[in-house]
């Protein structure tokens, strides 16, 4: 079998981008097809196109809806590495940034002025994301020149504006009905906030973990030493947020977990220090969907973030991450709240992926049955 695909960088992630009809040609369900394409289960993904890390084992599947004011719909897939599974439970903000660029490069959306607006909808969450792609003089620059933290080379500038992002997965900004909750893990009681905006996120205070607020560079080691208890917290949050019936049944990708702490005087230029976990490990930068949740949490009285920032969050929120400071923004848009962040994106390769026949009873599942 042969599959057309684009390999693209969006923000600090890499993803394989497929048009839905191209995957249908394989005749296999996506829960079987994608792990095989990516080379899972295998920690190296040596016989597939996966990158063997959580930030490079991702897929985006595109659809062109009829009307409804949406230019493109897309489904995000987090493909397991050591397990032949696909997590459909959330979106990836970084990979979202490739959708508008893809549409313009393929001629699905024609450039309009210095900034081209592409309205996209993520099918995992139902979230509408208004993408603003820089097209000076009505076209993509011949050489991309926009920079962002965590990426050494430039790409095309893409602004991602999440339209009314609260509660898209669970139905409420505060899924438990409370701004803070107490969970017990590792024999300790932890005061956390559980917020659903962009993606469900549980927020743990760095001070409660014993991390040095004045030495952000030491956080990764401290977090890695406590991954077990953090996973217990995350799984309990999954149950309380209504994402899983039991802690054992919690998905790997959601809820996300963010360790948060107050910025100190020795760290100018940011409002908040953040270290997010991705698939059980410290994220090298920040999940963009998670940054949307952090932004709304900082605006919500009673949350641990509101307390950390002093409730002073304005139109922008500056988040220090391992890759540098990321700035989110909030604005009114046609009477609705738009919460966003600027990314860069670039096409890395246009290719044909070759794959032997996929066999087994699961391969008979229809593409429509895999959440598309």
Give a description of the structure.
This protein is α+β, with helices and mostly antiparallel strands. The chain has seven helices and 17 strands. It has helices at residues 20-24, 30-38, 93-105, 219-224, 227-240, 288-298, 304-309, and strands at 2-10, 13-19, 58-63, 72-79, 86-87, 115-122, 128-134, 156-163, 181-185, 188-197, 199-205, 256-262, 272-278, 281-282, 316-321, 324-333, 336-354. The chain has an eight-stranded mixed β-barrel. The model is unreliable at 360-372 (pLDDT under 50).
Q: Can you summarize this structure?
A:
This protein has 372 residues and is α+β, with helices and mostly antiparallel strands.
User: Structural class, please?
Assistant: alpha+beta
Low-confidence stretches: 360-372
**Into which percent range does the helicity of residues fall?**
10-25%
Mean pLDDT value = 91
Biggest sheet, spatial arrangement of strands: 1-2-3-4-6-7-8-17
Q: Measured on Cα atoms, how large is the radius of gyration?
A: 20 Å
Q: How much of the residues is beta strand, in percent?
A: 25-35%
Largest beta-sheet details = 8 strands, mixed, barrel
How many helical stretches?
A: 7
First and last CA, distance: 21 Å
Shape annotation: globular
How many runs of DSSP E, i.e. beta strands?
17
The sequence of SSEs as H and E is EEHHEEEHEEEEEEHHEEEHHEEE
Write the layout of secondary structure elements.
Elements: E1 2-10, E2 13-19, H1 20-24, H2 30-38, E3 58-63, E4 72-79, E5 86-87, H3 93-105, E6 115-122, E7 128-134, E8 156-163, E9 181-185, E10 188-197, E11 199-205, H4 219-224, H5 227-240, E12 256-262, E13 272-278, E14 281-282, H6 288-298, H7 304-309, E15 316-321, E16 324-333, E17 336-354
Parallel strand pairs: 2-3, 4-6, 11-12, 13-15
Antiparallel strand pairs: 1-2, 1-17, 3-4, 4-5, 6-7, 7-8, 8-17, 9-10, 10-11, 12-13, 13-14, 15-16, 16-17
């Amino acid at each position: 079998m042969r599959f057309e695909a684009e390999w693209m960088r969006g923000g600090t992630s890499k993803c394989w981008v497929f048009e839905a009809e191209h995957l249908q040609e394989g005749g296999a369900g996506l829960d079987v097809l994608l792990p095989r394409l990516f080379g899972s289960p295998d920690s190296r993904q040596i016989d597939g196109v996966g990158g063997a890390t959580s930030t490079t084992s991702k897929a985006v599947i595109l659809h062109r809806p009829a009307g409804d004011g949406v230019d493109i719909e897309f489904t995000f897939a987090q493909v397991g590495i050591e397990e032949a599974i696909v997590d459909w439970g959330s979106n990836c903000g970084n990979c979202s940034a490739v959708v508008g660029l893809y549409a313009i490069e393929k001629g699905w959306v024609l450039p309009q002025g210095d900034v081209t607006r592409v309205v996209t909808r993520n099918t995992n969450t139902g979230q509408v994301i208004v993408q603003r792609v820089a097209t000076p003089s009505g076209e993509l620059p011949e050489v991309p020149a926009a920079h962002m933290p965590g990426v050494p080379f430039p790409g095309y500038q893409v602004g991602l504006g999440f339209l009314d992002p609260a509660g898209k997965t669970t139905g409420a900004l505060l899924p438990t009905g409370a701004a803070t909750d107490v969970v017990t893990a590792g024999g300790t009681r932890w005061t956390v906030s559980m917020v659903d905006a962009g993606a469900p996120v549980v927020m743990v205070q760095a001070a409660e973990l014993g991390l040095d607020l004045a030495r952000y560079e030491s956080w990764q080691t401290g977090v890695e030493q406590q991954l077990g208890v953090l996973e217990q917290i995350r799984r309990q949050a999954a149950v309380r947020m209504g994402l899983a019936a039991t802690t054992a049944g919690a998905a790997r990708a959601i809820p996300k977990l963010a360790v948060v702490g107050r910025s100190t005087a020795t760290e100018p230029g940011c409002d908040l220090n953040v270290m997010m976990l991705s698939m059980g490990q410290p994220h090298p930068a920040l999940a963009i969907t998670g940054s949307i949740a952090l932004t709304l949490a900082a605006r919500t009285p009673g949350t641990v973030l509101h307390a950390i920032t002093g409730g002073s969050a304005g139109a922008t929120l500056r988040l220090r991450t391992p890759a540098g400071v990321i700035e989110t923004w909030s604005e009114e848009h046609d009477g609705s709240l738009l919460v966003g962040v600027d990314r860069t994106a670039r096409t890395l390769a246009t290719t044909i992926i070759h794959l032997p026949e996929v066999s087994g009873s699961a391969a008979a599942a229809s593409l429509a049955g895999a959440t598309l």
